[in-house]
């Protein structure tokens, strides 16, 4: 392997494949390697046999139907209709390889019951989440959000998005703690309550993203690719290949090579070393010092925590969701006496990911105790009878440094959220670190993103 590359990418998770596609479009010479023989790495979609083999080492029950009807995501994520993932798909034209379907509903838990997330003043008035007086206050809040114009101070109601905190905004409108919960966690999609003490601008932008995504297709702000999330990394891999990117699956990484100053020079696989200026990789390639696909240095990443996920097979839609074929449900941390939210993502045969009359619901959260599975209980009990359940606990790694010194740019592990916004932040962060510039996504006509 005498060829020299601009970038070697390790792992075919969605983050890595998006970066591979974007770099190839920019004209970079990219080599993409994965120890697995399939695309997607941690973000793959498995057929029924693969699912049961991975978690049980057994064959699946015959009554669940044909293998080929299944594409079960290991990590659940939905796309915001107007969000960053959609922009990346449109910018790169990967939309031509994929079809999308809308998620039928977005729900939130409040006072032990789930209800649709209101996102407009009209929905606030009808919402069972809110009492009579709170409906009026929430309506006024949403009218302010929709009517706010930067250059018209009379629309600001005395609030400055860059100076006032979100806590002050909520106080101005007199919103109850439970209402703040669903706005902050189910609409603005914050992972904790730190945002309350930050300037309101970012939260305002996130609420606008949610409401504009909602307005785009109605029903919910979320989209999902037919045949599962595993289609996304393959779409970006195809894009990379069109622009000259080279893919090698089933390539175990024996060693990551450094020069005498500790700078990255290449990757050795099968006794051959291929050289490149930079390496971008998922954390699993940098944590295992045993030589089974890791680097010989462990200081590239640090362990942030763990995420627990339960992949559940159901024979019915989730109760209290209007028999929806797909939903996202967020259980805000305070509603379940936790430090982290619990997320539920449900899809069904209408998304070509399982057999008819089967539903796949994935419950996930950040681990806080020594009994991770028990932490999912508030979410699991909302599902009704569970036909089968597969539990996974995965580490969440973050890069220990920017990579500017050694040219090693590590991505983040996938978190517990059931949407793509945090992953897209990671793509931009790696791009900034590796390329030394901001990732600019061209505005293209988004009408080519058809959602059924």
UniProtKB/TrEMBL annotation:
Q: Which GO terms describe its molecular function?
A: Rab GDP-dissociation inhibitor activity
Annotated SUPFAM superfamilies: FAD-linked reductases, C-terminal domain (SSF54373), FAD/NAD(P)-binding domain (SSF51905)
User: A GO term (biological process) for this protein?
Assistant: vesicle-mediated transport
Q: Which GO terms describe its cellular component?
A: cytoplasm
What the record says about family reads: Belongs to the Rab GDI family.
Task: From the Swiss-Prot or TrEMBL record, give the protein name.
Answer: Rab GDP dissociation inhibitor
Gene from which the chain derives: FGENESH: predicted gene_5.452
């Amino acid at each position: 392997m005498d060829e020299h590359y601009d970038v070697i990418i390790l792992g075919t998770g969605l983050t890595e494949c998006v970066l591979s596609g974007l770099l190839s479009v920019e004209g970079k010479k990219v080599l993409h390697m994965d120890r697995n023989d399939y695309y997607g790495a941690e973000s793959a979609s498995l057929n029924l046999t693969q699912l049961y083999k991975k978690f049980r080492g057994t064959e699946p029950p015959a009554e669940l139907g044909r293998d080929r009807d299944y594409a079960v995501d290991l990590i659940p994520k939905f796309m915001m209709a107007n969000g960053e993932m959609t922009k990346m798909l449109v910018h790169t034209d990967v939309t031509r390889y994929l079809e999308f379907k809308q998620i039928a509903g977005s729900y939130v838990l409040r006072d032990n019951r789930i209800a649709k997330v209101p996102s407009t003043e009209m929905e606030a008035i009808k919402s069972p989440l809110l009492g009579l007086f709170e409906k009026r206050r929430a309506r006024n809040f949403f009218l302010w959000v929709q009517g706010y114009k930067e250059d018209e101070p009379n629309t600001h109601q005395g609030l400055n998005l860059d100076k006032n905190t979100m806590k002050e905004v909520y106080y101005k409108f007199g919103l109850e703690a439970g209402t703040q919960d669903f706005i902050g966690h189910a609409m603005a999609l914050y992972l904790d309550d730190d945002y309350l003490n930050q300037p309101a601008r970012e939260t305002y932008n996130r609420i606008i993203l949610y409401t504009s995504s909602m307005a785009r297709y109605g029903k919910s702000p979320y989209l999902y690719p037919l045949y599962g999330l595993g289609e996304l990394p393959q779409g970006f891999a195809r894009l990379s290949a069109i622009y000259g990117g080279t893919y090698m699956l089933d390539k175990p990484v024996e060693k990551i090579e450094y020069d005498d100053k500790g700078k990255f020079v290449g990757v050795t696989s099968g006794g051959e070393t291929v050289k490149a200026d930079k390496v971008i990789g998922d954390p699993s390639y940098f944590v295992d010092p045993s030589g089974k696909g890791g680097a010989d240095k462990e200081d590239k990443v640090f362990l942030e925590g763990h995420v627990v996920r339960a992949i559940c097979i159901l024979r019915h839609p989730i109760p209290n969701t209007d028999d929806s074929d797909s939903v996202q449900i967020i259980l805000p941390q305070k509603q379940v006496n936790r430090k982290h939210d619990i997320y539920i993502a449900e899809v069904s045969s209408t998304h070509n990911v399982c057999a008819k009359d089967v539903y796949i619901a994935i419950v996930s959260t950040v681990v806080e105790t020594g009994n991770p599975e028990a932490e999912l209980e508030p979410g699991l009990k909302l599902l009704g009878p569970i036909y089968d359940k597969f539990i996974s606990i995965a580490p969440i790694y973050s890069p220990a440094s920017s990579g500017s010194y050694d040219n090693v740019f590590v991505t983040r592990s996938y978190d517990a959220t059931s949407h793509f916004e945090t992953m897209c932040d990671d793509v931009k962060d790696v791009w900034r670190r590796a390329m030394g510039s901001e990732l600019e996504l061209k505005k293209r006509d988004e009408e080519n993103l058809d959602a059924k």
